[in-house]
Amino acid sequence: MQRHILCMKWGTKYGPEYVNRLYGMVRRHLSGEFQFNCLTDDARGIRPEVQCFSIPPLNLHLAPGQRDGAWKKLTTFEADLYGLHGTALFLDLDVVVVDSLDDFFTQPGEFLIIRDYQRFWRFGARVTGNSSVYRFELGAHADVLAYFRAHMDEVMARFRNEQDYLSDFLYRQGKLSYWPAEWCPSFKYHCIPPWPSNHWRAPFIPEGARIVIFHGEVNPPDALAGKRNKRFAHIEPATWVAQAWQE
Prior knowledge:
Blueprint: E1 3-9, H1 16-29, E2 35-40, E3 51-54, E4 87-91, E5 96-97, E6 111-115, E7 129-137, H2 142-150, H3 152-158, H4 162-172, E8 176-178, H5 187-191, E9 211-212, H6 220-225, H7 240-244
Parallel strand pairs: 1-2, 1-4, 2-3, 6-8
Antiparallel strand pairs: 4-7, 5-9, 6-7
C-alpha cells in the first residue's frame, strides 16, 4: 500500500514553515515509508522532501467579502491527482502531531474524518465531520468534486463550508466513518482547563491524543505564547507545543 500525506497551502495566512513543521512531525510519528505532498500556489521555502503540486483549478465565484470556506480542499478528490495512487491522509497545516500516526492508515473505514466537536448549544448527534484530518483512497471519491463543480452555486448556498458538504455527500452514500474521538481533540474545547483554573493551569494534551486540532481563535503560535484571540478569555502558555511543533 502506497501511503501519502496530503496538505494544502494557499494565500498568505500560513508560510512555508507550517508545511516544513508538519513534515517534521509526520516523519517523527509515522513509521515506514510515505510520500508527503503539498498542494499549493507558492512552493517557495518548502523543504525538498515535500512534493509540491499546483492546486487543481476550482473556479470559485465568490461575492465580495465572501469567505472561501476551504472549498479548495475538495480538489484532493480529483479522479487523477497528479498520478498519485494509494491511501491519502489529509492534514491541515495548523495541527500539532503528538503521538503515533500509524493507526490512521489501518483504522477500518472507507472514508474517515473527525466527528465535528459538539457545542453546548447544539443537541443530538451531528453528521458533519471536521476536515482537519481525513483519509481516503486517491481517486475513489471523484464524484464529490464532480458534483460540486456541476452544482457550485447550489452547494455553496446550502452548505456553510466544504466539510459540511463533504460529510453530507458521503454520509448519504453510506461511506462516512469517524476517527476514535480521543485521537483528534480540539485544543480550545479539550486542552484548556475549565474556568477559573485556566488562569493558573497550563493547557494539556488529553489522554489518547494523536493530533491536536487548532481551529477558531487559537493557533499553535498563540497557544505557545499563551494568547487567545477572544475577549475575556485567558490561557497559560502551552509549552508542549514548542516540543511537538517543530521541524
